């Protein structure tokens, strides 16, 4: 079965990748957490590549292999997926890293030369990257730490893109 690869009029090439989404969570995944590739109907997909085409209004969610065929850049599709895998692996270990405690009693951690910290604001917790404070507060330390991770990840990956352009 070739799924939509056999569909008449649906282009095979010229797609671009809008996004890659990790369907995984911190918990162990079961079968219902995975998606099926909408192009071949076969892959068991955790990392969903969202593909769009200039001739079509709909986007199609596919697996890595089909994404590579659709935009003619398997290495690129693989690379985007690897980035998300690295992120998932780092996030899984994030809370159990060696957080230190500042003189004021706030948790902090130094990552790649960046000083990342958590602080208490009344009953809730916020985070900062260097001297830049995050916009929100969280009910627990762990939630603030995970929000910090997401913000930090965004930051280092947007820096990377600027550097490679
Ligand atoms: Zn596929």
Secondary structure topology:
Blueprint (H helix, E strand, L loop, with lengths): L15 E7 L12 E2 L7 E2 L1 E6 L7 E3 L1 H8 L2 H21 L5 E2 L5 E5 L2 E8 L2 E6 L2 E2 L7 H24 L1
Antiparallel strand pairs: 1-4, 2-3, 4-5, 6-7, 7-8, 8-9, 9-10
Helix pairs in contact: 1-2
This protein binds zinc ion (ZN).
What does this structure look like?
Helix 1 (64-71) packs antiparallel against helix 2. The chain folds into 2 domains: 3-84, no CATH class; 100-164, no CATH class. The model has no long low-confidence stretch (mean pLDDT 91). With 165 residues, the protein is α+β, with helices and mostly antiparallel strands. The strands form 3 sheets. It has a 5-stranded antiparallel sheet, covered by helices on one side. A 3-stranded antiparallel sheet has the order 1-4-5. The chain has helices at residues 64-71, 74-94, 141-164; strands spanning 16-22, 35-36, 44-45, 47-52, 60-62, 100-101, 107-111, 114-121, 124-129, 132-133. Bound molecules: zinc ion. The site of zinc ion has 8 residues, from helix 1. Zinc ion (ZN) binds next to helix 1.
């Amino acid at each position: 079965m070739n799924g939509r690869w056999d569909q008449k009029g649906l282009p095979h090439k010229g797609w671009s990748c809008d996004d890659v989404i990790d369907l995984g969570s911190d918990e162990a995944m079961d079968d219902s957490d995975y998606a099926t590739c909408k192009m071949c109907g076969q892959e068991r997909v955790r990392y969903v590549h969202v593909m769009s085409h200039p001739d079509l209004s709909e986007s199609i969610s596919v697996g890595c292999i089909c994404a590579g065929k659709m935009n003619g850049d398997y290495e690129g599709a693989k690379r985007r997926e690897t980035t998300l895998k690295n992120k998932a692996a780092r996030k899984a270990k994030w809370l159990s890293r060696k957080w230190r405690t500042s003189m004021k009693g706030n948790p902090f951690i130094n990552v790649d030369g960046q000083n990342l910290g958590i602080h208490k604001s009344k009953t809730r917790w916020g985070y900062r990257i260097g001297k830049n404070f995050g916009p929100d507060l969280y009910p627990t330390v762990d939630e603030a730490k995970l929000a910090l991770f997401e913000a930090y990840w965004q930051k280092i990956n947007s820096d990377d893109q600027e550097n490679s352009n």
